[in-house]
Structures are given as C-alpha cells and as structure tokens.
Specification:
CATH class of the largest domain: Alpha Beta
Largest sheet: 5 strands, parallel
CATH topology of the largest domain: Rossmann fold
Radius of gyration: 20 Å
Strand order of the largest sheet: 2-5-8-1-9
Order of helices and strands: HHEHEHEEEHHEEEHEHHHEHHEHH
Helix content: 40-55%
CATH architecture of the largest domain: 3-Layer(aba) Sandwich
Structural class: alpha/beta
Oligomer: single chain
Distance between the termini: 50 Å
Number of strands: 11
CATH superfamily of the largest domain: P-loop containing nucleotide triphosphate hydrolases
Strand content: 15-25%
Length: 324
Amino acid sequence: MTDPAPVPAALPLSEVAARADVLRAALAEVVVGQGEAVSELLVALLSGGHALLEGVPGLAKTLLARTLAAALGLPFRRVQFTPDLMPSDVVGTNIFNLATSTFHLQRGPVFTNVLLGDEINRTPPKTQAALLEAMEERQVTIDGVSYLLTEPFFVIATQNPLDHEGTWPLPEAQLDRFMVKVRMDYPAAAHEKEVYRRSLGVAARPDDVRPVLAPGELAAIRAALRGVHVEERVLDYLLALVTATRKDPRLAAGASPRAGTALLAAARTWAALDGRAFVLPDDIKRMARPVLRHRLVPTPDAELEGATGEVVLSAILNRVEVPR
C-alpha cells in the first residue's frame, strides 16, 4: 500500500480569481472569444470535475482543450473516438514479450493529466464505459489489476449536437460523470472578425503558450476553494431546486444528490472566481444550467411537445424563489 498523498497547502482564497484571470489571458492568446465557455471549463477544472463540450465543428473545442493543457503545463493526450475504437485503445493492455516470456503493461492515453475525448458519442457504449472508472475513481483496472492515475486528472470530451448518424448517445451513467456540459456557440461578430484577422498572419498555437501556473499550484487553488463559506439559506435554495426537478411531471429523472453536490461545488468555485469567499444564491442559479442540463431526462410525452431537460430547468429556475 502506498502512502497517502500529502495535503497541498492552500493558496490564499483572495488570490484564486487572479490566478484564474492569468489562465484566461493565456487561453485568449490562442482562442478568441468563448468567454462563457472558458469560465465554465475553468469551474470544472478547479472544482476537480470533468467537462463535456458541445458545439458544431469549427468552434475551437479541440484547440481550447490543447491550449488549456499547455497553459497548465500538464501532459496532454487526445483520443479520437471512432466506431472501431476498443476499450484497450483507451486504458491500455498487457502485451506478451516473447523474449522474456512475461507480460508488460502498455499504458493507454488515459494515463495523462489532461485527456481529450474527441467526438465521444461516435464510439460504442463498451468503449465509452472504459472512461467511467477513470473519471470517478481516478484509476483503471486492466486484467484484474487496478492502476492509479496521476493527479490532476481532467477529462474534456466533445460532441457534435447536429450530426447524430452513426453515433451512440452517452447513457445517463456516463453523462453524470461530467460536472458540467458546456455549450459552445458561434462567436460574436467582433470576435469572429478577430479570428479572420489573426489568420492573415502567423496565428498563435497551443505550443506557443507557456505554463502560467507553477507545479502544484492547481492543487493549492483546489485546496483554497474549501474555504468558500456556504450559508444555510444557500443550502435551502439548492435543496429546493433539486427537489423541484424530481417533482416536475415533465421529467422522468430529476437531479440526484450527486448532481446537487456537483452544483454546490461549482457554485463555490464560481464565487471564488468572482472574488468572494462566500456563495450567493445567484451563484447556484448561475451554475445550475451547465451542471444540470445533461442530467435531467424529460418524459417521452414532454419530448413530443418539444421540451428538453434544459427547457424544464429554465422553468424551474424561474419558478423557485431566490432567497435574498
């Protein structure tokens, strides 16, 4: 048995927002616009969760993931999910060495710090499930032997919301492993013009970005977030929202306690990024969509009427009173 990892010294909570701004600036060297998506991605990273990026092709989803890894100074691996991808292509396998008559472990791309699963819904469920243990337990099991992954371990998966031919929608158990589902949309006109302007010259690439966080600083930021205070009224509001999702007749499945815990963690991070040491009910409301939109399952009748989980969630957010 290995010794437990030492608890990192916490960064002063007052410095968290400034360090996040440094990360944003590094990302802006390569990725233009997408400020809301960047903020939600940082919430997942700093909270210790994972992120699902959804958007049409060409919105810089892969570029954003690569640039973030470069800014963090962390090893990065990318897996292109395809229909013929096998679980061993993700986690690895034992290979027999004829010369020594022994097996040795060929580690898969999951043994990294930042893993990009590109078009994750284009691979069969068996391969999608290969990530379940890694994302939740931070380990993988190969031929009955468990191997711990190196911290930090951050999964960014992408999917295209339009082209569903030849895809396997992620099951609820897999979706629940993602703290946030980030929607990436077309950039604003000014930002898109800047993309074109940069393309006329030598545009910056992820390889041009230098690490902006010192080794261990990410762990120190995560430790600092434990100091964000949560009042009882905020917990009451969180409980009211979660309970409302379970009672809405348009939803076949509401938010679980794990979803509520993820929402609370995201709200604490959002508060710290806003320069506060305490959570407001508005922080819960702000993070409810990215944290819950992929966890709420509408009933078949509601789907026929055009209601999605996010549509129902919007109605619930408008209905449940925000404490002041």
